[in-house]
Model the fold of this input.
Amino acid sequence: MSVPGLGSFDGNYLLYLLAGKIYNAAALSFSTNTMQQAYSASNIQILKGLEAVRRRPGMYVGSTGEEGLHHLVYEVVDNSIDEALAGHCSEIHVTLSERNKIRVEDDGRGIPVDVHQGEGISALELVMTRLHAGGKFDKGTYKVSGGLHGVGVSVTNALSSWCRVEVHREGKLFVQEYRRGIPSGPTEEAGSTTQTGTVTEFIPDSDIFGDLEFSYDQLSKRLRELAFLNKGIRITITDRRMPTEKHHDFRFEGGVREFVAYLNKHKTVIHKPPVYFEGTRDGVEIEVALEYNDGYNETLFTFVNNINTREGGTHLIGFKSALTRTLNDFLKRSKLVKKLEEGFSGDDVREGLTAVISVKVAEPQFEGQTKAKLGNSEVKGIVESFVNEQLTFFFDQNPKVVNAILEKTVVAAKAREAARKARELTRRKSFLDSGGLPGKLADCAEKDPRKAEVYIVEGDSAGGSAKAGRDRQFQAILPLWGKMLNVEKTRIDKVLANDKLQPIITALGAGAGENFDFSKLRYHKIIIMADADVDGSHIRTLLLTFFYRYMQPILEEGLCYIAMPPLYKLSVGKRVEYAYNDAERDRIYEELVQEGVDEQKISIQRYKGLGEMNPDQLWETTMDPETRNIMQIRMEDAVEAEEIFTTLMGEHVAPRREFIEENALNVSNLDV
Done:
């Protein structure tokens, strides 16, 4: 697992640095000759070919976990997308097969196979076996290109136990196979063909990725994203690993305009269709779509060369500035200006906004290793002037649309002032109440957030047992009573003033919404502990909705967990066993009978709530890190997360009914 902020160090060099620190601290001395013997030219290693990739895979694909595994597919698909961006590819097909085998096929020009004059091998072999070899470095071949790390498909080859590439080009079929990045033989002509394009098949190396398997949903998310961002391109994914084949066929002629409509499909929009414009300015291609709904949350997705810039950057700053300035200009011309003492803020104009901003830049500069933020300073001004110009033109031509947006934004501005007063009230209460913490919070002694955890517990009874049974050193308990607000249907001023949510905001210490500050978070493990019934499920869903809308980094960083208390207690005399589902209950029961225990002496208790457990039982089954079951909640697909929260917690009943009908048979442990 990679550690943020730390690179990958050679072991000898790290020990050398450590020795230097010890030397300085202890005022020890040793001769220069000794130093030369310990660290000389003989210690310098040169890793040839793709050996560096196999030695340090995390440096090239991010990790050897799920992120890195799926990145192998993205590198291959990115090559096909580059062909599409250059106008030479219209279809990309991805297939998952048994043994974790992946096949990526496109109808592009096909990787060149002629011999490279400088290297003496085919261009195909060069691309597949050398880092940073490819057409994307020649701006005459690809004007812009994607690719997250820019290391190329050779990394996929290096980290695969087997790889095979077919090239359909100029009426001929060429083939080359590889084992762990090493060619099994030269590129060979294998027949004639009427197609053009490249077919890449590979199996990830289990020595590097272990037993990890590809996720159909995770790959579908990225491929759907690429189809939205590259209008008109058909991208399919097929999963043949199960008896029932799964298949998605993505093609969006409307590009990001359809992306926005997709994001808003279960919401009530205040204008149709989405505002859309595209163009090129100073070498930067810009495509923007936006649409307002009657909700209270903003949904913004930004991309650079098809890369999802989750942390935004200069293109997002330019868009936000242009939107705020343009709407303020139109406010001054409107009768609504009389309803406000001052103009709109950025938060006001983005309430209920759904927007996608996609730019293509010839030489993108990203901040940080994850490339989640664009750093090109010139892009801000380019995007800002372009968006301002296009929005002004559109609003001039569509006065009804801009008036609907202005009316919503005026209400948002008034709500902002109410929210400010609610925050001040929350701060005052926090100051007066026990050093700023909620009265019901039983805090822990540990002050390092990375080592501290808080249980948000349903009910005072269960909260009392949890307080008595916990480890006070690192476990805090916050009891909740009753169901909190559904934040999906509420503005932030109501959220901040809600008596069920205030204790959570105060206890976590990081604020909420735009003011959420991850660095101030008091616990890095937040565990929701509710009863295993309908009410408990509802409370968990309400809390997750709150975290998603107002504390999203908690989910992005994987700091939220669901406690999994047992459903049954089986006891015979002093012997006690716990079961977490019906199947486990039956298994334990059968084992006891096989051991000779009289069936009449086996007592089975079905827990209806956490409050039925005494402190020792709650600690043993649900709170002891050595024995407990907790389920981590992570947000891997922001688009799917947006859709599911809107469906389950939004205003529209029909999508929720449809969801329930489709998933009813998958429900387990539901009391009726």
